[in-house]
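Incident review: delayed structure delivery

Summary: a single-chain prediction request sat in the queue longer than the usual turnaround. Root cause was a stuck worker, restarted by the on-call engineer. No data loss occurred. The affected request and its eventual output are reproduced below so the record is complete for anyone auditing the incident later.

Affected input:
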Amino acid sequence: MTGQPVYYINGIGILSPQKTFDNDVFLAELSSYHENVLTCVTPEFKNYINPIQLRRLSRMLRIGLTAATICLRDAKVQTPQGIITGTGYGFLDETAKFLRELLEQHEKQLTPTYFMQSTYNALSGLIALSVKCMGYNNAYVSRGLAFENVLDDAMLKLIETPDANYLVGAFDEAAEVQFLASTRASHFKTEQINNLDLFNTTTKGSIQGEGAAFFMLSGKASDTTWCALHDMQFVYNPVDIAEVKTSIASFLKKNSISIQDIDLWIDGASGDIEHDRMMNDLAASTFKDIFHTRFKHLCGESCTASSFALWLGASILRHQQVPAAIKVHTEKHPAQLNTILIVNQYMNKNFSFFLLKQV
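Output delivered after worker restart:
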């Protein structure tokens, strides 16, 4: 292959705290939460999962398998060449149930289901069995860069076999055990707020989110293509804002575009006055003249929230529409949206950039 490879998003399936499971509707109605925990809005699971299989699955496995099924149907692909998933913490509820039973029953006569459904690769294995995929299957557990590692893996695979279809996805759940621990560490706010007012707060911490998002990634476009993913890059624990700005400049130069070529940027600020400092600096400097949107008030903060941002960017390009709920200002956006840059941060430590273009 010559030149910079391009990757195409040929299908999407996502379940989130908003009604996102219907790909024909784009944030037509918003879900409002008055607690600091956002949970998935789910469809009728039996429309996507065999009822006999359904009753054996945990809640998060149902959500993940449904998202993957929606993506496969959207891409018109029965069996992908590979399945790659990422998660920050995995299935914490099932892990907690397994450990609780381990202690209460003194390690005797344990229910195997809790253990089987708590492993990090439970979802990728379940999907593979459901669609009879005997190909590449991998799961990443790398906190705030889990979804980025998934994409990196798939992109490397597609350089070798651009005609292949890889089902890539990410999931994290709003588990109580994580919420309590994270609140003590000031990762989530202690005062109750409405999620739609997240960016009007000036306190430490964000709000907890969850979701499962799947994308059909290929090196070839199809009649179901949403948009093109031209590149993705991540930066771990930058020393200061100067390093982030240098990384963004290098990323754009590598892809032969300038700041002025970006029609819209999606800001990964989380509503945490401490962790948003670098993102706020970027908004006031590097991207001050670029149409500005945010998203974590809709999905909450999680290790894999960047997967929601990727769905959001792809949806904006597909529908040529910017919902009022994600606009930071009310200024008029460009008449034609061709290029979107996503800049996400997790805990002010993991930064990632996604460059999307209309096909």
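Verification: The CA atoms of residues 171 and 212 lie 4 Å apart.
Action items: add queue-age alerting; document worker restart procedure.
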